[in-house]
Input
Amino acid sequence: RAFVLAARGEADVQEARGMFRVQDSLRVRCTTQSLDSLETGAAQNAVTLSGQLTCAGQSVPYTLTFSALDERQVAFDLRLADPSFNRIFLTYASDRQEHFWGFGEQFTYLDLKGRRVPIWVSEQGVGRGEQPITLGADLTNDGAGGAWYTTYAPMPHYLTSRMRSLFLDTSAYSVFDLRADDFVQVQVWDAGLQGRVFYGDSPLDLLETYTAWAGRMSPLPDWLLHGVVVGMQGGTDRVREVYAQLKERHVPVAAFWLQDWVGQRTTSFGKQLWWNWELDEDRYPGWDALQSDLEADGVRLMVYVSPFLADVSEKSNVRRNLFAEARDLGYLVKDASGAPYMLQNTSFSAALVDLSNPQAYAWYRDVLREQLGRAHAAGWMADFGEALPWDA
Output
């Protein structure tokens, strides 16, 4: 069996409000593989395999390099010489008893052995295959039902019961096909496939090796574990009222998470937020006093942000129109014409900050640092990164 395959594919991707429907048609599929050479690196810690993939009178050269980084990790780099082959496959051995865990935040199954797992950031979905709720969500909200694998936070990363782990270093659409008993096939929509394989004696070993390379989450602050985080909306007086009721009942509170700190707008959907990430002092008069009073009791304020910005020129109490600033600086995600890619939400439209642009990233980081600092926010929900259009 060939362990490297190549294909030319054409994707049909439909997107609505962060939900994606992906279909792929493979026009040419090269499944005959030759292994023509095997070369070791100068330092004897790398080996490169090269050969040809052939099909229908065509061929494409490939190289696959393995580099031993230390006793616990090996990097791999698979490349096709012809970029017109935009689908690449890598196949390797497994067995019926090997269990696969991971792939980011998965809501339906713990063990993914026997499944085909696409990796693409999207809305989670309502129903996710359970009927009739999924059908109802699909019919009434542009395919919002989702599927068992749709998730806000997927990762091309797993670990197995055989104490091995693999991570793909790619932002391209990928698929892990775990349906066969005796092999795994990884597909990436690109002309190359790079990543790392980790080995260890326990799941903790695997995660420590991975995070030593990829980075580790900072420990949660102690205060977050000393009570509930109350998510609510409604303004200053309402927060004080709810807090008084909780204190009366001796409920330990760590923080209030106030999604509407930026103000509330009326749309065709009902009540939504103004997507302009600054404190609305009409919605929350006396914010500083509220924050100070809560902090005296060891209670923090937390807020909400997203990479979306909406034009707030019609809003009355604006200090900064972040949409206008980002638009004028060229920091918004663009459409095929080079204009800001405006996405219709309900009765308003908005655009995404292009966080792949280092200048836009730095600008937005500084904006959030300033605005959240001004609000004395101890934390925030970072939401809605799943709606980047496929054709942006």
Remarks:
- The two ends are 38 Å apart (CA to CA).
- Residues 4-214 form a domain with the Immunoglobulin-like fold (CATH 2.60.40.1760).
- The helical segments are 133-140, 203-214, 236-248, 287-296, 322-329, 358-374.
- The first strand starts at residue 4 and ends at 16.
